[in-house]
């Protein structure tokens, strides 16, 4: 489709108008808005933006961003993709609209992931002992990963069973065990990076969900976690990978838990849990 800028307009702050989730390089987001999504995909030119109609607030794209035409495509409940075409006389073909449709679907998926991530990462959704996502967030965590699977990417899930936390509580007291638990959570969260999500699944279990990662990549990540925690806790891991297709959060977490190898029978302080 040539050189263009593609903007995504979404509701903001509960108001009726749509505003751009804009590339900061354009520095126009304070000037742009759309009162409501268009009824169907279409193209507008500078004349339509100059008449004072519903797209008059897009006029800066013609003056500041040097647009020759704007192609608009609604998506989702109230979103709109606006493609800035800078070439005069550009005729939009069926292939162009198909590509814009794909961009709209990608925008919708990205916004849904952002909404899900907000529910997962919010303070109310965090486990107070670790700062990780709370067990109640399992369905939201897996839904976040499902978006990656929907685009054909793999999703790796690792269940980390931690040995030694109970022994720390018995030998050094609950305060020291709490510090150890938080330290372990920090190592796992750091390993997960920006794309992965770590969830406290049980007192001594952490579920690690890695959208876009294969089982082999997850295994390497878990090996790094095990190495960093070697002197503090034992890490026993079960790893599964899933691609596109129907599956439930409980099923995926259950498969990962079933893949955890049998742990040695505890003895001494650990047996006193």
Produce the secondary structure layout.
Elements lengths: L3 E8 L6 E3 L21 E3 L1 H5 L8 H5 L5 E7 L3 E7 L8 H28 L16 H13 L4 E9 L1 H8 L1 H19 L4 E6 L2 E7 L3 H14 L5 E9 L6 H10 L15
Antiparallel strand pairs: 1-2, 1-5, 3-4, 4-5, 6-8, 6-9, 7-8
Helix pairs in contact: 3-4, 5-6, 6-7
List keywords for this structure.
single chain; about 270 residues; alpha+beta; Beta-Lactamase; Alpha-Beta Plaits; 2 domains; 4-stranded antiparallel sheet; about 35% helix; disordered C terminus
Report what the structure shows.
This protein folds into 2 domains: 4-118, Beta-Lactamase, CATH 3.30.450.40; 124-272, Alpha-Beta Plaits (2-Layer Sandwich), CATH 3.30.70.270. It is elongated and about 75 Å long. 37% of the residues lie in helices and 22% in strands. The chain has helices at residues 46-50, 59-63, 94-121, 138-150, 165-172, 174-192, 215-228, 249-258, and strands spanning 4-11, 18-20, 42-44, 69-75, 79-85, 155-163, 197-202, 205-211, 234-242. The protein has 273 residues and is of the alpha+beta class. It is built from 8 helices and 9 strands.
TL;DR?
About 35% of the residues lie in helices and about 20% in strands.
The CATH class label of the largest domain is Alpha Beta
**Quaternary organisation:** single chain
Total strand segments:
9
What structural category do the secondary elements indicate? alpha+beta
> Which fold name corresponds to the CATH topology of the largest domain?
Alpha-Beta Plaits
The major beta sheet can be summarized as:
5 strands, antiparallel
Helical segment count? 8
Q: What would CATH call the architecture of the largest domain?
A: 2-Layer Sandwich
Rounded average pLDDT: 78
Order of helices and strands: EEEHHEEHHEHHEEHEH
Radius of gyration: 25 Å
